[in-house]
Design goal:
The chain is an all-alpha fold. It has 3 domains: about 210 residues, no CATH class; about 160 residues, no CATH class; about 80 residues, no CATH class. About 40% of the residues are buried.
Length: about 525
């Protein structure tokens, strides 16, 4: 029994358990684990259940090994605030009004509590990891495994043309070889961008930007061949994924890594200049100049711009005439207004290039034809801006609910999920959790980042070092990606690893103030 206690109380057991748990994260994000049949079988995705159990075990080990019980009073206060918020959030959610014959967009207390628990998991990891100073060797091992699992599988499935498409639910039709052919094998980004067998490309892209910054830090500190090969694998993986965040994120970080390497070598003199490393970093920039023009991310921009230009020429006059005709019919038959609007929307919504999922499934025109007619009157660029339409749907639901407390307590994550997830983190949390929920569950990421920036600037000479800068850079670009692409802070594959490195940055900057290690 004593030996068991000694084993459990060994802090090395906690750190090893935590690292192995993080290494397993890519395996828990395979798409088949989120299929409807699998989710219905368990009630939730088995990935989420495993992650909750894993964090629960890590928290238990931390409680057994951390002797500084005085800290816990702050955790109890925070926990009490979350519980109080959840109670008021639920009571407010029950008082919901709409146009939709009593339909409340599928709100349930259980699913909302489950979501709040998911949001708390990475915050607990920030707190725990801040108490431990993980060695460079441990961090290198973690990053190596993550790159091999994520980018290695993307590379393999791309070359063998068995990968799922980043922008579709089907298999890609061509590999990276097609990028360099004059006709791109008659394929576009939709058929070439590949995410391996993973679930969500946005979350993967955000995670890879974080990993890229840490990988460059590891390379600069230890410029051996293995770490150079990992950067090349990262470059291929991020470009094959084909999102703007992954492609341009890797590019921006590569440029910054090159500049910072020179700064820390010649200005700060923290590093000894390595000619071989300098040549490698320069070569990466050359490869990027070759890859960007043929990448799926750039092809997507070109394809979308061409589509908007061509569609605007073809449809604008025709649609204006049809809308004028509808308005005349409504003026002549005001009693039939709703039916005339519904018939018009059903007939013409495809010509307006409105996403069928939005107008039929997410927020049906059958419920609110006036809303969709207003959308149809907007310019083509706005009608095809998915993030704008997503936000307008949520804003409309909130407007109809017409309760001031929506601003503070939100309309719930469950309702947003049953409409459509707004692909703009922080803004989406304002709608779903309200200001109070966003402060409790989302603002810690921003507050911690801001405090770390201030700490670095206050003691620039000491704290503006290679590790802190690259950690902060990775965290900053990952949070920026969350705002830009959305659905990131709700994805545990990103936030658990993000939480770990945020804790690492806190430990690096505030180790003298953190007890219990």
């Amino acid at each position: 029994m004593e030996k068991l206690k000694e084993f459990i109380n060994n802090k090395e057991i906690l750190t090893k358990t935590l690292l192995v748990f993080l290494m397993l994260q890519p395996l828990l994000d395979f798409a088949f684990l989120f299929k409807e049949k699998v989710v219905n079988l368990f009630g939730f995705s088995p990935s989420t259940i495993i992650r909750i159990l894993g964090i629960g075990l890590i928290c238990l080990l931390f409680l057994l090994t951390n002797k500084n019980n005085k800290e816990y009073k702050y955790l109890f206060i925070y926990g009490a605030l979350v519980i109080i918020y959840t109670i008021f959030h639920h009571l407010h959610a029950l008082n919901f009004t709409n146009y939709y014959n009593g339909y409340n967009f599928g709100y349930t207390l259980f699913s909302e509590i489950f979501y709040i628990i998911r949001m708390l998991l990475p915050l607990s990891l920030i707190y725990i990891s801040a108490h431990y100073n993980f060695s460079p060797k441990q961090i290198e091992k973690l990053i190596t495994v993550l790159i091999l699992l994520i980018c290695g599988s993307i590379l393999f499935t791309n070359l063998t043309v068995i990968s799922l498409g980043s922008y579709s639910k089907t298999t890609i039709k061509g590999s990276i070889v097609c990028w360099f052919k004059s006709n791109r094998c008659n394929l576009n980004y939709y058929e070439l961008a590949s995410k391996g067998f993973f679930n969500d490309p946005n979350r993967l892209a955000s995670l890879l930007t974080l990993i890229t910054s840490i990988a460059y830090y590891i390379l600069i500190k230890n410029p051996k061949l293995k770490n150079k090969l990992l950067i090349i694998l990262l470059m291929l993986g991020t470009f094959m994924l084909g999102t703007k965040v992954s492609t341009y994120g890797f590019t921006i970080l590569s440029v910054l890594a090159f500049i910072l390497y020179l700064f820390f070598s010649f200005v700060k003199k923290e590093l000894k200049f390595n000619r071989s490393l300098f040549c490698f970093l320069s070569l990466v920039l050359v490869f990027l100049a070759i890859l960007i023009p043929v990448s799926p991310a750039l092809n997507r921009t070109e394809t979308e711009n061409a589509f908007l230009s061509e569609t605007a020429k073809l449809n604008d006059t025709k649609l204006k005439e049809s809308m004028q005709k509808l308005e005349k019919e409504i003026a002549q038959n005001p009693s039939q207004k709703i039916e005339l609007e519904k018939d018009y929307i059903k007939k013409y919504y495809e010509d307006y290039n409105i996403n069928p999922q939005f107008i039929i499934d997410s927020y049906s025109y059958e419920y609110d034809p006036d809303f969709w007619l207003d959308i149809m009157k907007r310019p083509l660029k706005e009608r095809t801006d998915f993030r704008l339409i997503e936000e307008l749907m949520l804003k409309r639901v909130k407007e109809i609910n017409n309760q001031k407390l929506d601003n503070y307590l939100g309309i719930t994550f469950t309702r947003m999920g049953n409409i459509f997830d707004l692909e703009r983190d922080f803004i989406s949390h304002y709608y779903t959790m309200g200001i109070l929920g966003a402060i409790l569950l989302v603002s810690p990421y921003l507050i911690i980042t801001l405090i770390c920036i201030i700490k670095i600037l206050k003691n620039f000479k000491k704290n503006f070092n290679l590790k802190n800068v690259f950690y902060l850079m990775g965290i900053g670009i990952a949070l920026s990606a969350a705002f830009y692409s959305g659905n990131v802070l709700d994805g545990l594959i990103v936030t658990l690893i993000l939480g770990f490195f945020m804790g690492g940055l806190i430990n690096s900057l505030f180790a003298e103030n953190i007890k219990g290690e």
